[in-house]
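FAQ
Q: What does a multi-component entry look like?
A: The components come first, one per line:
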Amino acid sequence: MSSPAINPGFFEPSPFNKRQLYVIGGLSALAIAPFVIWPRLSERLLATDFLPHLYCYLRNPRLVWTHVVADSLIGLAYLAISITLAHLVYKARRDIPFHWMFLAFGLFIIACGGTHFMEVATIWVPLYILSAAVKLFTAVVSVTTAVVLPFTVPRILALVQQAKESQQVTARLRASEERKAALLREVHHRVKNNLAVICSLFYLQSTHTKDKDAAQIFRDMENRVHSMALVHESLYGSENLARIDFAEYAQALARDILSSHAGPNAPVLLKSEMEPLIMGADLAVPCGLILNELISNAFKHGLPHAADGEIKLTLRSGPEHKCSLCVEDNGVGIPADLAVDPGKALGLRLVRSLTQQIRGSFELVKVDRGTSARLQFTVDRHEL
Amino acid sequence: MNSDLVSPELRALIVEDETLIAEELGERLSHLGFSVIAMVDSAEEGIAIATRERPDLVLMDIRLKGKKDGVEAAKEIRSQVDVPIVYLTAYSDQLTVDRVRGSEHDAFLLKPFQGRELQTTIEVAMRRHAARRQKKNEI
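Then the predicted structure of the entire assembly, as tokens:
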């Protein structure tokens, strides 16, 4: 279905300033002209040499007051309606198509109100000539409105049609947006699933390997892929399917690594102080891999046999989107050869190259009790 | 693993459509002392085997091959056999989690899972199941 052609003219403000000022000016001139040509006209107009209606009603108070109240109410109502219309046109003059039509309506209604007010006046004061003039004016305005209105019907119908179609377009866009989100969600689900299958493969291979070192390699690989799978899992559940809260992710990852490393004899306490930090997948994947290495390192090198092992995770976001992620353990500290030549351990090598990839900085610091691994990076340049 | 919960004769059924993940689950279950009677990838097969073989534990994926999903399969199995059921599900899938919460099961394991989570979840499921059975007997 093609999108409806929107006629821009409908929504453009009418050239009120010029053309309509001419019309109003012309009408005013037409109304004033007779008084100028015939100065006695105003005198004639206000002539009261007739019998007021009061006599026709035989001064019956019920009849008189019923007329007075009813005519006054009608007149006031008409006045209120036209004030509302004028207010509407004034407020929405840029958005209402044919606002001159509303003005014509307002004028027509005011004129009708005028005739009713005259009805009230003529009960006591026989201003019949003025009353006739008001009626004549009302007739002109009414007839004009009545004649012009049918011509606007097709345009109003077209406008209604356009509104309907634009509603349909909006609905279609929304549906397409939802389909896109569902598709994206499905993609994340599949990626996560495939990564989970790779994890299973590594696990299965590790259980079929006699060599302890080789088995450990497969476990390490399983954990690395798992850290990536978890990003897609988080994305899948995130609202906009593009960004995740890294603090939440890090919690889940740390818990998983803990459960994969912790033997029954080495309960390790996990402490975390993390501020929420929203980031895109392109940053979350390398950060997740880095965090995986750092936590695994803490287990492997820091806390091999610690009975009161403790790992502390800290995530802070500072000014200008600068963030720091810190993994601290209370273990035996960095082995001397690792600290001197980081190339020796694959884990740290991965950390260093991933740090380079996210344009961050990394340092491994010996602290009072144990080791502190500190990663600093900036979020905004990666933001989607 | 707690030895009163898992003794060698305990039999488990795995219903999971990713066969390699099923393999991993199978391996992990045998490490925990279960004998895996079958690994199937559809709800229909799962229901058939569960009702025929009456296993001691069912691991049930939510997304499955075939028309029915894991939640429906669990419901049908539960209507015929009293067996602890552990769902395998993605935690972030809120709709699924909500549906799972209100359905017939004893525990659920969030995927991707790792390490000892499986063991802990199975222990929880079997303990809950035992408690429920005891309550039923008392009544």
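Q: Is there any commentary attached?
A: Sometimes. For this entry: Chain A has two domains: 8-174, 265-384.
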